[in-house]
Each structure stands twice: as C-alpha cells, then as structure tokens.
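During the reporting period the student researcher (J.K.) took over the structure-prediction task from the postdoctoral fellow and processed the backlog of single-chain submissions. One of the processed entries is reproduced below for the supervisory committee.
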Amino acid sequence: MQFIDLKKQYQALRDPINKRIQAVLDHGQYIMGPEVKELEDALSSYTDSKHCITVASGTEALLMALMALNVRPGDEVITTTFTFIATAEVIVLLGATPVFVDVLPDTCNIDTSRIEAKITSRTKAILPVSLYGQCADMDEINAIAARYGLAVIEDAAQSFGATYKGRKSCNVSTIGCTSFFPSKPLGCYGDGGAIFTNDDTLAQAMREIRVHGQSSRYHHTRIGVGGRMDTLQCAVVIGKLERFDWEVEQRAQIGKRYQALLANASNGSRTVAVREDRTSVWAQFTVIVPERERIINVMKEAGIPTAIHYPRAIHQQPAYQQYAVAGETPVSEALAQQVLSLPMHPDLDEESQDRIVDTLLSALN
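J.K. obtained the following structure tokens:
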C-alpha cells in the first residue's frame, strides 16, 4: 500500500503530462518559458487572485513574501510552532524573530485568541499555517492584523484547493504562499511553489525578488534571490490541473469517510476537526492517538504505512529552542506526541481505506 500514490495519479494523467513536458523539450525555454505565465494565469483564475508568482519552492514563497514586506533583523513575526520547520526557518533567515503561538486542539491550527497578546512594536506580520489542508481562522486573524496595521501571510503549503467561507485558500489574506512539492494536493515532480496577492506593489516586489532583485536585465533595484520555478515543473502542474477539481472532490469524500468510520474510535483517539464554514483538501489525514509508537508498529506489521506530521514542535528543535517560552504551547507539545497521519490520496479506494481503519481500530481497542 502507498502512503501517497503518485504512480497511480501519473497513470491517469500520463498523456497530458507527457504532452506538456514534450512541448518544453521542443521549444527549449527551460527558464521562464511560456508555461510559467500560462500556469500563473491558470492559478490566478483558480484562486480569483489578481496576481500569481510561481517560485522555486514553498519555502522560497514564504521567504520572498517576508522580503517583500521588508522584514529585517529586529522584527518579529507571529506564527505557530506546530508546523513544518520552513514556516519559522524563513523568519530566522532574515534575522527576524519567530514569536510562537499555540494551536487549537481540534483543528491543530493557530489559536487566534492568543495572537493579540503577542503583538509588540516590533511585530511586522502574522504568519498562520493552514495545516493538514484546512484554512486557519483567517477572518479573526485578518481583523487583528488590521487593528495593528500588520500584514498576514497564509502558509497554504498544504491547503491549495481548500475553501474558507467560499473563498479559495491563498486568497484570504495579504499574501498567500503554497507549495507544489510532489506530495502536496497539487504537486509537481520536484520543487515548486507559488505566491498570491491582490496588492500590485507587493506583486511587483516579489516578481523582482524572484529574479535576483531585477526590475530589468542587470538592473537590480532590491535584494533578491534565484527563486524561479522551472518551466518543466510548471508544465507538470498544468498537466495535473486537468483533473484537479476531481481530485479535490475525491479528497473531500475520502476525508469524510475516514471521519465517519473513525467517529466512535475508542481509547481517547480522535480525528482532526474541520469547521463547517470551510473545506479541507486533506493534505494529510491525521488522527490523534495514545501509544503512538505501538500503533505505528501494528500498522507496519499489517503493511500499512503511516507518517508523523510533526514529531516535535518547532521550538523543541535544537536550532530553535532559543525562541521557546516555557509553558505557553502545551497543546502543540502534546499533539507532537500523538498525531499520526494515515494514507491519503485521491485514488485511495474504499477496500484499502476499510483495511486501514479496521487495523487502526483493532490497535486502539
């Protein structure tokens, strides 16, 4: 059994993907070829965002967003500690300080009731994460940000395709950043990502930052990076867009079925909740379980792969312990010991899902 079955997805999309790749090989414009703009236009339309800037990775997307906001040493950025390391990594790379806020126990997304107390004169932005495929409480976050004149960057690396009160993830804040890492809901065959905004000035800044700060060839108006998304990777994503709507719907159905089958799980286990006013694309289907290592071993013996997203909160990592505040993130620390992700992809059939659930329920009893 595959945790994420990219081979099966490719078999379904072989012709459009191969055709798109071959077109790039034929025209030979491997950097900033026509597929780059084609993809940006398609993604802009999909999210109803004014601007889309494709970039080299989800990490680069976050970094460029912070650079466009002029985040610099001495600044602070409020974010969650229960996420992939890249969320905080980009803040530290710019010399700023990540200020960690705990998460909600049911959605695993940032606890908005704790954000305002963390705002200081040095706060430059709020960077919530739409974890596991579901947007954070963006209206509340945006309202707090507006009161203090702050920008909001949605880390939507796991939530592209999800909706929040009818709006698409990546278009619910000042800037939205996503990843096209192969395992994401919409992935390429290497690294890739995109930035979304409705702000013309920020869009121009991020386009210049993407190409070493150039406003025109060899005219560098700002500090930048080499952050372009390869034409070949753009071509792959364009090919995958052909059945993306179907995949999002499949993910929704599989996620709901998981939730229903596990609704009465015993021994204190539970699934991650999804709020009624939003949808999840289930980048991971995660359960909270006791005795995680024992359950992992039971699943492994049955031939069922699992993963942990994430085994440590960021402030518990050796390189980030200096940013920890004792006693302020107990939910994140507890979740890190209990979360377990099950196989999840749009081609997961009911027979396999039943086997996964039966094995998990047996292990929990």
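The committee noted the following: The chain has a mean pLDDT of 97.
J.K. will present the remaining backlog at the next meeting.
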